[in-house]
Write a structure and sequence with these properties.
This protein is mostly beta strands. The chain contains no helices and eleven strands. Strands 2, 4, 5, 6, 9, 10 and 11 form a seven-stranded mixed beta sheet that branches.
């Protein structure tokens, strides 16, 4: 089992920044990839960023490329999402996801990010 807890969400004005954190516990050493998804009201869930355990491979959705940065601290079992130049369309519930070989992905409870215009 892997338990994920997100933090750092909230309300910010357009153009501002937020940093989300996701702390993993349990079988965290078995995690080979972590990702951030988001879901806005009435829209499909979207994977926006992912990072491998080594930290040397990252990927981003086009919608956030150049504005968001994913990173991880394996010593703290934590992954971060630095979000800059936020736009109202970034408003969504953000989810942290951990991929473990041989099992279904683990999901955090989600955290609200609201960007006001």
């Amino acid at each position: 089992q892997v338990h994920l807890v997100e933090s750092g969400g909230g309300l910010v004005q357009a153009g501002g920044s937020l940093r989300l954190s996701c702390a993993a516990s349990g079988r965290s050493s078995s995690i080979y990839l972590m990702a951030w998804f988001r879901q806005a009201p009435g829209k499909e869930r979207e994977r926006i960023a992912a990072i491998r355990r080594s930290g040397d491979s990252t990927s981003y959705a086009d919608s956030v490329k150049g504005r968001f940065t994913i990173s991880r601290d394996n010593a703290k079992n934590t992954v971060y999402l630095q979000m800059n130049s936020l736009k109202p369309e970034d408003t969504a519930v953000y989810y942290c996801v951990a991929a473990v070989a041989g099992t279904s992905d683990y999901w955090g409870q989600g955290i609200q990010v609201t960007v006001s215009s």
